[in-house]
């Protein structure tokens, strides 16, 4: 166990497999943030030495994060998180370029912060085409190309899906948008810090990310805005962040974000390999041990930490409660839509039958997941499902 992992050791024996919802803050990130809570506490907009010390930290963080994706420091805008970044990108682009066109292309499986933003813009007079996906959740670049019109001003496609983990062909889609002179926005909240991203090679104009998905603090995100990609601010105030996001900087969180990115850059390859092995062990164990289990999402082109499975004759919410009572934390989909209890729009877009949609559970692994935990989850999960099916009249009727 590394010093960082030792610092994260839990006092109980609960198992956390919901890293796609949020991650624990890495201990090194905590230490990096500490001085900016009450020692270097000045307002970065102030001209005195207290403020300039804080400003230097913000600008260093901006430079470090920009380097991670091959951007220029002045193209990084700090926000309050992924949802704000997505809204600033999409609404900001729409209102800035609305005189040139009114058409937007996105996919049917985007995060709610993208889909609901697009629906809001439809009420404001914009037109949106929602491109479908195949049974594995992949967007076909040719479908995006066919959906584009003469007045298309923006294409917004996520890098990796938060529910099923499918990784999209961002490079191909970016090339298509670039050839047409259309802005290309990528929601990289799930992939940033986990997959290599080079905004130049991928032809990305706008990119959203959030610190709490890569062991950083909650409440801070970024929006990469390519210099040529003019957008309009949603909030009006001072001139912070080039006037695109006026507000006093959250200096501790920004510093923490940069430290989380530094760590991610350092461990990305080895960590992805380790977690992918555990992911595959979990998938193989579930499919072998549990009858009627089906993997959702692409079998290969998926995030290294994502396992989304439907279980025949099982209610996903009930299974989630049973697992939580057994000390295992996972989810039935996006944490941002849990309160609605609506069927997953992502799985429905894949053509998954409603019963299988309602039985789906997402396990998402992370930096502190162990092989022992995976084995424990397999034993507990199979036992809970067996007991749930024993009390299911429909299951007993079908299996006599």
Structure in words:
The chain is 42% helix and 13% strand. It has 14 helices and 12 strands. α2 packs antiparallel against α9, α5 runs parallel beside α6 and α9 crosses α13.
Please estimate the helix content. Answer: 40-55%
- Main sheet makeup: 7 strands, mixed
Name the beta content range: 5-15%
Mean pLDDT level = 93
**CATH first level of the largest domain:** Alpha Beta
Uncertain spans: 1-11
* CATH H-level superfamily title of the largest domain: Type I PLP-dependent aspartate aminotransferase-like (Major domain)
The Cα radius of gyration reads 22 Å
Tell me the CATH topology of the largest domain: Aspartate Aminotransferase, domain 2
List keywords for this structure.
Aspartate Aminotransferase, domain 1; 400 residues; alpha/beta; Aspartate Aminotransferase, domain 2; three-stranded antiparallel β-sheet; 2 domains; 42% helix; seven-stranded mixed β-sheet; globular
Task: Summarize this entry quickly.
The chain is of the alpha/beta class. It is built from 14 helices and twelve strands. The radius of gyration is 22 Å and the shape is globular.
């Amino acid at each position: 166990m590394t010093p960082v992992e030792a610092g994260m050791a839990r006092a109980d024996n609960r198992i956390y497999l919901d890293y796609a919802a949020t991650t624990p803050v890495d201990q090194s990130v905590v230490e990096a943030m500490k001085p900016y809570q009450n020692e270097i506490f000045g307002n970065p907009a102030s001209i005195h030495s207290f403020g300039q010390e804080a400003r230097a930290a913000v600008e260093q963080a901006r430079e470090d994060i920009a380097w991670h994706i091959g951007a220029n420091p002045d193209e990084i805008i700090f926000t309050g998180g992924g949802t704000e970044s997505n809204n600033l990108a999409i609404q900001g682009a729409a209102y800035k370029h609305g005189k040139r066109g009114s058409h937007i292309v996105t996919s049917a499986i985007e995060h709610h912060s993208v889909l609901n933003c697009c629906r809001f813009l439809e009420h404001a007079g914009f037109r949106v085409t929602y491109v479908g996906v195949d049974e594995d959740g992949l967007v076909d670049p040719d479908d995006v190309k066919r959906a584009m019109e003469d007045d298309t001003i923006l294409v917004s496609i996520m890098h990796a899906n938060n529910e099923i983990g499918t990784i999209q062909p961002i490079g191909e889609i970016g090339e298509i948008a670039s050839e047409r002179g259309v802005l290309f926005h990528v929601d990289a909240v799930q992939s940033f810090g986990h997959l290599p991203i080079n905004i130049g090679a991928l032809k990305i104009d706008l990119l959203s990310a959030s610190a709490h998905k890569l062991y950083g603090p909650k409440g801070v995100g970024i929006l990469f805005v390519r210099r040529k990609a003019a957008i309009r601010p949603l909030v009006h105030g001072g001139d912070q962040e080039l006037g695109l996001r006026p507000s006093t900087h959250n200096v501790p969180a920004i510093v923490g974000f940069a430290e989380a990115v530094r760590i991610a850059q350092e461990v990305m390859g080895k960590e992805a390999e380790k977690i992918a092995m555990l992911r595959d062990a979990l998938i193989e164990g579930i499919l072998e041990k549990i009858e009627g289990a089906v993997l959702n999402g692409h079998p290969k082109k998926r995030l290294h930490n994502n396992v989304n499975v439907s279980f025949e004759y099982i209610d996903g919410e009930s299974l989630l409660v049973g697992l939580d009572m057994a000390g295992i934390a996972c989810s039935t989909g996006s944490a941002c839509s849990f309160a609605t209890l609506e069927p997953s729009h992502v799985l429905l877009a894949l053509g998954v039958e409603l019963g299988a949609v309602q039985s789906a559970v997402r396990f998402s692994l992370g930096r502190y997941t162990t092989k022992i935990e995976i084995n424990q989850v397999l034993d507990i999960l199979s036992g809970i499902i067996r007991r749930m099916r024993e009390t299911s009249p429909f299951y007993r009727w079908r299996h006599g």
